[in-house]
Structure formats: C-alpha cells, structure tokens
Design a protein that fits this description.
- The complex is a heterodimer of chains A (504) and B (321).
- Chain A has 504 residues and is of the alpha/beta class.
- Chain A has 19 helices and 22 strands.
- In chain A, the strands form five sheets. A six-stranded mixed beta sheet of chain A has the order 6-9-10-3-11-12, with helices on both faces.
- In chain A, strand 11 and strand 12 form a beta hairpin.
- By secondary structure, chain B is mainly α.
- Chain B has one domain: ABC transporter involved in vitamin B12 uptake, BtuC (Orthogonal Bundle).
- Helix content of chain B is 74%, strand content 1%.
- Chain B contains 15 helices and two strands.
- In chain B, helix 4 packs across helix 14 and helix 9 crosses helix 10.
- Chain B is globular and about 50 Å long.
- Chain B starts with a helix and ends with a helix.
- Classes of the chains: A alpha/beta (504), B mainly alpha (321).
C-alpha cells in the first residue's frame, strides 16, 4: 500500500461511538448511541432540551465517562479520563457559556495551563505571537493582549476556538454556539467553520436553530430520550421531518382533564407590554383567566424563565405592567407580587427554591412563618406540625426533620410546590415543573396542576417538554428570542405548530 | 432522627447540633478538674464567667452575622470606640453617666448601620466593608482623646462588674446571660430569627420567598455592632478605664468562639447554644492554661490548634453524611 493510500485510509476514520450509554444512578440518560464522524465533516446533533445531546458532547470531550459502550478516535480506542485527555487527543468542546478568565488577556486565556516558558519565565512574546497567529486565522482583528472582559460574547467564543486550535484540535464540538450571537456574527462563525473544515477539522454542531442546519451541516443526527432516533446523510432535510423526529411519538402519559373556564371570565393575570431590563424579552402581552392553565413554550434561551421571573418580581423590567384582578403589581422585588398572590415555582429548585442542608420543615416554613405560627412564636413543634400537614396533603415521601438534600428530585419539587401553594396564591407559575423527575412523580405533579386550576387559580406552566405543555394547557404562548410569536388554542396547538413558531 | 428531635428537653434543644463541641467542652472541664486543684471551685468558675462576658456578648452578635453568611471584622474597634465615647462624654464633658452609656451604644450601632449600608446598598463584600469600618472606628476612637486613655469611672459603674449580687452574679454577667437568652429565643422562636437561617442557607431563596433580605442584613450588622458597643461598656467597667487601643484582635477571638461552637462561615448553620459552648471552651481553656501556668505564647498555639481541630472535626462529620 502506498503511503498516500494509507494516509487516505487513516483520514477516513474520524470518531466513532459504539453503543455508548450513560446512567446516573437509576436514571438512564443515554442508551446505545452509535455515531461516526469523518474528518472535515460537520455533523449536526439535534434533539429537544434534555434529550441527551449535551451528555454526548460531554462524553466525547472527556467531561463525563460513559457507563457502557466504547469510542474510537482516528482508528485507535479512545477513552478520555478527563477533558485534558480529550484536548491532547485533539478534541475540544466549545461551551455554550464561555469558560474564560475575564481578567486575563486573550493570549493568556488561550495558553492557560501551558504557558510557553523560556529560561524559567513566561515567554510573553512567543505567547502573544502564537495567539495572534490563531486570531488572524479566525479573522479576529484584536491584539492578543486585550483583556477578555472587554470582548463581546462572539469574540469570546473566538477565543475559545483559538484555544482549541492551538491544541491542534481535529474535532470541535459546539454546544449551542449561536445562542448568544447575532446574525452577522453567526455568518462569520459559519465562514470560519467552513475554512477549518477545509483544513480537515471536523465538527459536532449542537443547535436548536433548525434553520441553520442546512446552511452549515453535512449530516444530521437526531436524539430523543437518550436514543439515536435518526441519522440523515444530508443536511437538506425538511424542518418538519426533523421536528417530528425530535418530538417523536407521544409517550404514554396521562394528563388530567381540566375544564377550561368560561370564555367571558375576566382575566386574573394581565401582562401588558412587559420588557426585560436585561434585554431577555420585549413587549410581551398576554392574560390568564382564573381556572385556566396557560402554557409557555419555546427553546432554551427564548426568554421564558426570564419572563416568568419578571412577572413574579424577581428580575427587573424596563417597561410594561403586570396586573392581578386589575390592580398593578409593583415589580421592584418579589414581595409585592407575593403579597398579591403570585407565586413562582422556579426552574432552578436548588438555587432558588430550596435550602438543601436544612430540613423539610424549615424549608416549608420559609416565607410561611405567619401561617406556621399566627401568634408570631415559631416553635419546632409547630413547624413540624405544619410540615406534616403539607407532607400528607402533597404526598411527599419524607419526614419533617429530614434534610431536603437527601430527597429525590420529585419529592424536592413537591416541597417547592407545597411551599408556594401553602401561601394561598391566586397565580401559580411553574417553570419546568417536571425537569429531572421520574414518571411517577410527574403524574402527581400534573394532578396538583389540575387541582390548582379547579380551585380557580390561574396556572402558568413553562416547559421544554412539549407534550407536557400541550397535555396540560388550555392555551399555549410560544416565545422565541424574547418575543411572543403567538398564542395557540388547545385545538390548534400541536407539536409541529409550536416548534415551528419556537424556531423562528 | 425523628425520635431524637421530638424527644429531649429545653437543655438538649438549646445545644442542638453542638454535640461535638459539647463533648470537647466536657472533656476539657474534666481534664482541668483533675489536672489542677483550683479549676473546679465556685470562685474560679465565677472568675471565668467574668472573664468571658466581653467575648460572650460580642459572640452573640457575631452569631447573627455569621448565620446570614456574613462576617464582622469591626467589632474590636467598635468596642474601643464605645468605651471612648462613653468615657469622653461622661468624664471629660460631664454628661450624666447613664446618658454617656446610651450615647456609646448609639455610636456603636451607627458603625454597624454604616457597615450594613455598605454591604446592602453598595454590594460590598462584608469582609471589605467591615474591614473598612474596623479602621474607621479605631481611628475615631483614637481621635477622641488624641490617643489618651480615660481612667476612673463612677463607683456605681465599676461596681457593675465587681459586686456579686446574691453572692454570685455581677450585673455584667447578668447582662450577658439575659442577652444570650433573648438572642436564643429570637433565633429559635421568632420569624426574624428563623429568616437568618434562610438568608444564610441561600439569600436568593430567602429573597424569592419574600424575606426582606436587605433590611434584615442591615439590622444584623447594626445589632452586632450595638452588642460590640455593649461589650466595650462592660470592658470599661471591668477595667475602670477606656483605651483607644482596647479590643485589638477581639474580632478574631469572637469569630473563633462562634466557629468552634460549630457555626459555618458560609452561613445557615449555627445557634446561640453552639456559640455559648464555643465561648465556654475558649474561656475555660484560657483559664485552665493559666492555672497550669502555660506561657501565653504557648496558649496562642493551643487556641489555634483547638480552632483547627474543631472545624476539621465538624467538616469530617458532615462529609460522612
């Protein structure tokens, strides 16, 4: 065999994944993933939120070890124990959120951990020269001594790419690279990807923006519920087909029937022209009637969480109003919204709703002191009595004195919901109420949602799980890039119609 | 777990969660009782009580601060400022002495209020804000008399720390006990006290639950400084003098007492009961080392080792959970 032919054959082999699976305790997040990637190829990896795309990226880049299966890279077995192994093998992951040191220069960020040395000192000249070379290759016209803090998000991303390139990366994994980019910046990124492709670099490209796929990808793979459901050897696949493969057949899930409130009912919650002070969403208007379940759909980064946080007073707004029963809610903090009966069950349970090292009783009492002890004297006995009632009512598996951190996700979520419901709210907003929760607990939470609506509360359900939104909500509003793209009735709302609005 | 928490009387509840440090305290007392003739005598125990009043009062305020995940480095300086304000107004300006005490407490509280404003309004880290206040308060304390000490207070005032009412209780020790009990009741039974645990556990969770985190934080630093001011008054009574240089390093003793008791510097964990145990450990340890005629230099080493052991033991215990 000639050297050239041998080389060609080796080059044909990029990355392969063989029956790769991942379990976290009893939860299976990936099953039997097979994947091949040839040099100089862009593979788009698609799937709904939580389908397992990021886990695949993490396994390939050495962040997590697969539970089952094997990988090969350029013809040899590949099992990175840490990201450093992946990097030295030439595989780099460009995170959705940049992981750069803001107060160091571009060059220092590119070479952090392996600064070029000469005579026991850092060779700054060589470092800057090499960084400048990569920046030029990427078409980024900034001195390598600029502090990363002063760069725009798009430029920061270029620094990440430059970092990977100085490691002679042969495979770059992009996780939602364009989520924070404008149109021009996206075009620039695509140009660079094409140029690097020409140099033999391959890419795994994870994105929710389906319109980008035919522009940049060579092949498409779709993951759903941790399984590879389809691979296409071309990127020219109709969006509708991709969406259908992403959302798949409805799982066998039972949603309780909730009768919609009469149409003439006056709205309980009115949101008018609400605009984020941080630019996360703009000019969003909608209203929810008592007894109604209102769904809020959209992809990650569409501004859903930011919108509901603003409605509950947790984040600042620059304009617009929120009214409860016709009365304006002050949005300068969560206190006025809470006192008017708006409660938010946040997406981030651990960071925003629970104090994990403290007990169930302490967590339930938090913010509910007036109900725990109307006299103003909170004894442990009263706190625990209060907790026991909630534990019984919401079927929480645990005891009052148990630490919340020891509970399963489903039980933690029930505590968060219980804590909010015990305030006797009028408007209940649930952000990703079943994320990280097993199927049994999901049914219990759907039942709680139905009960709340039947009791005459206005319920807003935010979910990335389309089946959930469609199964629970009377109406669905679709957000995309911070804008209301339309409110669909239950009759007209379907997976495809929602996803089409969500990916605009 | 359930049985343990529902059983147990007031004493057990008071020291809840402080079992490790409590065992240490009991062992320490047992050892000192055997190793020395004088440790286990009423007279010596009363002496220790007198010696720990200043630390005990400051540690109550520091417990509040550490519970919300904060730190107050200014308490030693505020203590000095308080003594100087009282002495200057009472002795040099001839104010009624009671009024001078009140003014000292107001001045101290103001320091904490300003620290609290820096932390809540200017979003300064508590470490930096109170470090600044530590320097400012010390400076003001020294300016008042241009660095001179003030000696000789009214007899009734000095007697507060000397005369043992009912044969055992000085007013200053009594004040420490009353403050400790009030603080315990607030932390254990009042919404305001319970919110401190929530804020320390997670300020964002507490805020979203409708707790006014800013206002509470402001109060906590104000109260901590007020108690440091009271400690300054007590120290002045004990010494019958006030000095701009008093209380240097007390902030670290105070933090040590709270931490030895088992509070977490990241907030949310701690209690008055634990702090009392921490204060007693430091008090008995110093007293015992003196009785054993250990040099003050070696004492410093011992105290350092105790802090390290106490916190390491606590961390290891939690890692097991």
């Amino acid at each position: 065999m000639t050297t050239a032919a041998k080389q060609a054959e080796q080059l044909e082999v990029g990355l392969t994944l063989h029956r790769v699976g991942k379990q976290y305790g009893p939860i299976t997040v990936l099953t039997g993933i097979d994947l091949t990637l040839r040099p100089g190829e862009v593979l788009a990896l698609l799937g709904e939120n939580g389908a397992g795309k990021s886990t695949v990226a993490s396994i390939i880049s050495g962040l997590v070890a697969p539970s089952t299966g094997s990988m090969t890279w350029r013809g040899a077995p590949y099992a990175p124990a840490a990201p450093a192994d992946a990097l030295s093998a030439g595989i780099g992951l460009i995170h959705q959120e940049m992981r750069l040191l803001p107060d160091l220069s571009i060059a220092e960020n590119v070479f952090v951990g392996r600064l070029p040395m000469r005579g026991g000192r850092i060779d700054r000249a060589a470092m800057n020269a090499r960084a400048a070379e990569q920046l030029k290759r990427l078409g980024l016209n900034v001195p390598p001594t600029t502090l990363v803090r002063h760069l725009r998000v798009a430029a920061q991303q270029q620094v990440e790419i430059a970092k990977a390139l100085t490691l002679n990366a042969k495979l770059l994994i992009f996780d939602e690279p364009t989520a924070a980019l404008g149109l021009d910046e996206t075009d620039r990124l695509f140009e660079q990807i094409r140029r690097l492709k020409g140099e033999g670099v391959s890419f795994i490209y994870i994105s929710h923006r389906l319109d980008e796929i035919p522009r940049i990808a060579d092949r498409v793979a779709v993951i759903r519920d941790g399984r590879m459901v389809a691979t296409h050897d071309t990127a020219q696949v109709p969006t509708k087909t991709l969406v259908e493969q992403m959302v798949g057949r409805p799982l066998d899930r039972m949603f309780p029937t909730i009768d919609p409130p009469p149409l003439e009912t006056a709205p309980l919650l009115e949101v008018d022209g609400l605009t984020s002070a941080r630019g996360d969403f703009a000019d969003v208007s909608f209203s929810v009637r008592p007894g109604e379940v209102f769904g809020l759909a959209g992809i990650i980064g569409a501004g859903r969480t930011e919108l509901v946080r603003a409605i509950s007073g947790a984040d600042p707004v620059s304009s617009g109003t929120v009214k409860i029963n016709g009365q304006l809610v002050r949005l300068d903090g969560p206190r006025d919204a809470l006192s008017r009966g708006v409660v938010l069950v946040p997406e981030d349970r651990k960071g925003q709703a629970l104090i994990l090292p403290q007990t169930i009783a302490d967590n339930l009492a938090l913010g509910n002191y007036a109900r725990v002890a109307p006299s103003g004297w909170i004894s442990r006995a009263r706190t625990e009595d209060f907790a026991r009632q909630a534990i019984k009512r919401f079927l929480i598996k645990g005891t009052a004195g148990q630490r919340v951190g020891q509970l399963s996700g489903g039980n933690q979520q029930k505590i968060v919901i219980a804590k909010s419901i015990l305030r006797d709210p009028k408007v209940v907003i649930l952000d990703e109420p079943t994320r990280g929760i097993d199927v049994g607990a999901r049914a219990a939470i759907y039942q709680i949602v139905a009960d709340l609506a039947r009791e005459g509360m206005a319920v807003i359900v935010v979910s990335s799980d389309l089946d959930e939104v469609l199964g629970l909500a009377h109406r669905v509003m679709v957000l995309s890039r911070g804008r209301n793209r339309g409110v669909l009735d239950r009759e007209t709302a379907g997976r495809v119609s929602v996803m089409e609005l969500a990916t605009t | 777990m359930e049985a343990k928490s529902s059983g147990g009387g007031g004493v057990l509840r008071f020291i809840r969660g402080a079992t490790g440090p409590l065992i240490g305290l009991v062992l320490l007392c047992a050892f000192l009782s055997i190793a020395t003739d004088t440790f286990l005598s009423v007279r010596n125990i009363l002496n220790v009580m007198d010696q720990i009043t200043v630390l005990g009062v400051m540690a109550v305020g520091m417990t509040f601060v550490i519970l919300i995940g904060g730190i107050d480095l200014s308490v030693g300086s505020v203590l000095a400022l308080s003594g100087m304000v009282m002495g200057y107004l009472g002795n040099n300006l001839g104010w009624p002495f009671g009024l001078a005490i009140v003014a000292a407490l107001v001045a101290s509280s103001a320091c904490g209020f300003v620290s609290g404003l820096m932390i809540t309004r200017l979003a300064m880290p508590a470490f930096i804000a109170t470090l600044a206040m530590m320097s400012i308060a010390r400076g003001i304390a020294s300016i008042i008399t241009n660095g001179q000490q003030i000696i000789g207070f009214p007899d009734w005032f000095s007697n507060l720390a000397i005369i043992r009412n009912f044969g055992f209780l000085t007013v200053t020790v009594g004040a420490m006990i009353v403050i400790t009990v009030i603080a315990w009741v607030i932390l254990q039974y009042r919404p305001a006290g319970r919110s401190l645990y929530a804020i320390g556990g997670s300020a964002e969770v507490a805020r979203l639950a409708g707790i006014n985190v800013r206002r509470t934080t402001l109060w906590v630093y104000t109260i901590c400084a007020a108690l440091a001011g009271l400690a300054g008054v007590i120290l002045s009574a004990r010494l019958d003098s006030a000095q701009p240089s008093s209380g240097i390093g007390y902030e670290l003793d105070t933090i040590a007492a709270v931490v030895i008791g088992g509070a977490s510097l990241s907030g949310g964990v701690g209690s008055i009961g634990r702090t009392v145990i921490g204060v007693l450990i430091i008090g008995f340890l110093r007293n015992g080392l003196n009785l054993l005629q250990v040099s003050p230099f070696v004492q410093q080493i011992v105290i350092g080792v105790v802090i390290a052991v106490a916190v390491a033991a606590d961390t290891l215990r939690h890692r097991g959970e």
